[in-house]
Amino acid sequence: xxxxxxxxxxxxxxxxxxxxxxxxxxxxxxxxxxxxxxxxxxxxxxxxxxxxxxxxxxxxxxxxxxxxxxxxxxxxxxxxxxxxxxxxxxxxxxxxxxxxxxxxxxxxxxxxxxxxxxxxxxxxxxxxxxxxxxxxxxxxxxxxxxxxxxxxxxxxxxxxxxxxxxxxxxxxxxxxxxxxxxxxxxxxxxxxxxxxxxxxxxxxxxxxxxxxxxxxxxxxxxxxxxxxxxxxxxxxxxxxxxxxxxxxxxxxxxxxxxxxxxxxxxxxxxxxxxxxxxxxxxxxxxxxxxxxxxxxxxxxxxxxxxxxxxxxxxxxxxxxxxxxxxxxxxxxxxxxxxxxxxxxxxxxxxxxxxxxxxxxxxxxxxxxxxxxxxxxxxxxxxxxxxxxxxxxxxxxxxxxxxxxxxxxxxxxxxxxxxxxxxxxxxxxxxxxxxxxxxxxxxxxxxxxxxxxxxxxxxxxxxxxxxxxxxxxxxxxxxxxxxxxxxx
Length: 487
What we know:
- The chain is of the alpha/beta class.
- The protein has a single domain (11-482), classed as Glycosidases (TIM Barrel).
- 39% of the residues lie in helices and 14% in strands.
- It is built from 17 helices and 15 strands.
- Strand 14 (458-461) and strand 15 form a beta hairpin.
- Helix 9 (204-213) packs antiparallel against helix 10, helix 11 (272-285) packs across helix 15 (371-383) and helix 16 (410-428) packs parallel to helix 17.
- The longest helix has 25 residues, at 225-249.
- It is globular.
- Mean pLDDT is 93; it is low at 1-37.
C-alpha cells in the first residue's frame, strides 16, 4: 500500500467524479459571521480538544459481546494492511481509558472527540443493545466529566457491523441507513444526558469511495461509479436520519452535525477573482455530500457531470438529508486543490500539484497551512453557518527517540504552529470557528498503514502499551494555556 493513496487523500481520484465541474449556480453572499474577537489569540471560550476513534484505539474486539466489524474482516485479508497488523489490540483503550483520559487532562484539553463502536453496542447492527457495550461508554463518559473534559461523540467512524455488510451490502442499502437511525436513537436516549455534542458520520468522502469504489478500505469493493454515487447518497441519508433521531430521542439542547474530510480548495493567489473561484470550487467539489446536506439539493453541475450515474433519490429523502444541523465539522489536513479563476465552464481551474510540493512523512500530507484559513472562511460564507469545528487536523511525523527515551517531533510542531496560526487569523477576522480537535491524542492503528504511521501527541509502544509524551504535547499544552497559536 503506497503513501500516495492514503488515509484522507480522495480529492484527486474521487472529488471530480463526486462533484462535477460544469457551470455552477450563482451563490448569494452570506452575511458576515459574528464571532467574539480576541486580538492576538483565539476567541474566549474556544474549545480545545483532541480525538481518537473506536477501532483505532479500543482493541478488545472479542470481549464483552462486541460483534465483528468490516475492519475486523478486512484486516484479515493478506496484503490489505501495509504492515500486516490489525486493531485486535490497538491501544487497549477499552481497558486503559482512565490512563488515557489522564493524558488528555495533562494537555489541558477541555474536550475529547471519540467514537462509539457500533458493533460493540449492537453486535449484529440491530436488535437489542449489548449492556456491556453500553456500560463501557457510560464509564468512559463519566470518567471524562470527572476530569473536567467534555465528551464529543461520533456515531460512525467506519466500523460498520459485519452483519449489516453480509445481510444488506452495507451502505449499498437504505436498510442500513434505517438501522443506523435506530442505532443513533439508542445512543441519544442513553448518553445525551451527559453528551451535549454529537457528530454523525466521519468522512463519507473517504469510506464511501475507498471502501466501495477502489477497494482500498473496508469492505474492499470496486463498484461502478453509479453505485458509488448511490452509496454516497445513502450515507447522506444516514446522516439525516441520525440528525432526526438525535433530535427526537436526545435531551433538549443536544447539538448535532457532520464531520467531513472536506475537499479543501484554496485560491492560488489572493485576488478577488481567485477567491471567488475558490468559493465556487469548494461548493462544487463537495457537491456530492456536504453541499446536499447543507442545501438540500444536488447542484446542477453535479447532476450534469454525473449524467446517467447520478444517484436516484426522492424529494422526501432530500428533506431528511438536509435536516438542520447545529454545527459543521471539518476534517482538514492538506490542500487538495489550489484554484485560479477561469472563463471556461465552471469558473475555476484546479492547478496540478508539483512533485516538489512540500509534504510530511506521508506523500499525501502536503503542507498547506492556509487551508485552515480559507476553507472555514469560504465554508461559512457558502453554507451560512455560524458554528464550525475543526473536527480533525494533525500530521504523522518522524518521531526522534533519544537514548534516554525522550521523543522530539519538531516536524509536527512546525506543522501545527503554522496551521494554527492560520486558524487564528481566521477567527480574528470573525470566521465562526468555535473549536479544534487535534488528531490524534496518541499513536494508534492508522487504517491501511497499520501501526506504521504515527499521528499522536503521545508515543505508544505497542508491545508494552507505554504512553510517552512527545515534544508536541508540550507545544499543544502551551497553545491551550495561552489560547493562542504562539506566533
